[in-house]
Amino acid sequence: PPGNLPDCPNGSQWVMEVFNECTQDSRDIASVVLGLVSILCFVAASFPQFYQAWKTGIMDQALSVYFLLGWLGGDILNLIGSFLASQLPLQVYTAIYYVFADLVMLTLYCYYKAKNESRRFNIRINAAFVFLSLGTVLTISFLGRDAAVMQDPVTFKGRSLLSIRLDEFGLKPFTRMEIIGFTIGSISSVLYLCSRIPQIYTNYKRQSTVGVSYSLFALVMLGNLLYGLSV
């Protein structure tokens, strides 16, 4: 009878329970492991920059605020998209962490800017920071309340923004909520890509990378490489 057989009879049970993904051979397991290591790289990427900021005290000069705002905007949209596209809990939790880490980094930026410039703040920067912070809090509270309603089972294939739904009759089309989530995720990717440009310009203008953590970008590059291999 339907339901008596497991979804993945020859696969790893814990991977199926945690990731809702069927891993039946070494290639599948390698994909999962690389994906997990990729997440760890992204999670750890901010810490070297925190240390560099404390060590040099010139974070406001070393990093472009538009680089930080681009990252924060991309992560906020990624978080919203993870709810709308019914991503797995691990992906939602990591998206929340990314937003939190961005807010901490932006807070450090504002702290050192205030310290080094004696209360002279850029009004546009602070307005954008406050707007994004409030938007994040409101979005998390709103989506967290409605997440249970929007979640239904998916077959996980890499990122859930690209997942497919299955029923006993075969494929089902994407819902409107999933399409919106996919669109938001795409805009998030554009923000990630464009955020590098202000930082490259800042480095060129200063003719220096003092105060910028090499490990931050090395871990991000490694995370992207491992994620690509995982896919």
Automatic annotation (TrEMBL):
<dbReference type="GO" id="GO:0005765">
    <property type="term" value="C:lysosomal membrane"/>
</dbReference>
<dbReference type="InterPro" id="IPR051415">
    <property type="entry name" value="LAAT-1"/>
</dbReference>
<keyword id="KW-0812">Transmembrane</keyword>
<feature type="transmembrane region" description="Helical">
    <location>
        <begin position="29"/>
        <end position="51"/>
    </location>
</feature>
<dbReference type="Pfam" id="PF04193">
    <property type="entry name" value="PQ-loop"/>
</dbReference>
<keyword id="KW-0472">Membrane</keyword>
<feature type="transmembrane region" description="Helical">
    <location>
        <begin position="123"/>
        <end position="143"/>
    </location>
</feature>
<feature type="transmembrane region" description="Helical">
    <location>
        <begin position="63"/>
        <end position="84"/>
    </location>
</feature>
<dbReference type="GO" id="GO:0015189">
    <property type="term" value="F:L-lysine transmembrane transporter activity"/>
</dbReference>
<feature type="transmembrane region" description="Helical">
    <location>
        <begin position="90"/>
        <end position="111"/>
    </location>
</feature>
<dbReference type="InterPro" id="IPR006603">
    <property type="entry name" value="PQ-loop_rpt"/>
</dbReference>
<keyword id="KW-1133">Transmembrane helix</keyword>
<feature type="transmembrane region" description="Helical">
    <location>
        <begin position="209"/>
        <end position="229"/>
    </location>
</feature>
<feature type="transmembrane region" description="Helical">
    <location>
        <begin position="179"/>
        <end position="197"/>
    </location>
</feature>
<protein>
    <submittedName>
        <fullName>Lysosomal amino acid transporter 1</fullName>
    </submittedName>
</protein>
<comment type="similarity">
    <text>Belongs to the laat-1 family.</text>
</comment>
